[in-house]
Write a structure and sequence with these properties.
With 157 residues, the protein is of the alpha/beta class. The protein has a single domain (2-41, 48-149), classed as Alpha/beta knot, CATH 3.40.1280. The protein has helices spanning 14-27, 49-61, 82-95, 112-117, 131-149, and strands spanning 2-8, 32-38, 69-79, 100-104, 120-123. The chain has a five-stranded parallel sheet with strand order 2-1-4-3-5. The radius of gyration is 15 Å and the shape is globular. The relative contact order is 0.24. The mean pLDDT is 94.
């Protein structure tokens, strides 16, 4: 199983890049992880929020096949503890041959076409985080999930 993490825009702050790289490097011991940055749209002042979401949706959905399991990181998604998230990842890796694709949308969220294609929605928190911070939080939680699955001492409960 391969995990793909798609984000709209790129991480610019050096301290966040460093943290993301740290956990991506650690994750190589557990899974194949691909980070995909979809470029932010240009000249968006002439576009409505819906038009922007629609254009981002086209770019996101081009990266997804019919066999992929698409999970949106969305404020209205399921909330998990770290152990529950580890169980979710473990179940998906054992019961499915589909690749997991996690997606963080653009500044206005997801277009209806992306919601329609999604298999699941997960919320990292009820709080709102910057898109750059979500990237770090997600890869850390993914690393934590694998350390829980393997029974390693990273996670304390």
């Amino acid at each position: 199983m391969k995990i793909t993490f798609i984000t709209v825009g790129k991480t610019e702050d050096a301290y966040l890049k460093e943290g993301i790289e740290k956990y991506v490097k650690r994750l190589k011991h557990y899974t194949r992880l691909e980070l995909v940055d979809i470029p932010e749209l240009k000249n968006t002042k002439a576009l409505t929020e819906e038009q922007q979401k629609s254009k981002e949706a086209e770019l996101i959905l081009k990266k997804v096949t019919s066999q992929d399991h698409l999970i949106l990181l969305d404020e209205n998604g399921l909330e998990f503890t770290s152990v529950q998230f580890a169980n979710y990842i473990n179940k998906r890796s054992v019961t499915s041959s589909a690749n997991l694709i996690f997606v963080v949308g653009g500044p206005y969220g997801f277009d209806q076409s992306v919601y329609a294609r999604a298999n699941d929605k997960i919320s990292l928190s009820r709080m709102t985080f910057s898109h750059q911070m979500v990237r770090l939080f997600f890869v850390e939680q993914l690393y934590r999930a694998y350390s829980i699955i393997k029974g390693e001492p990273y996670h304390h409960q």
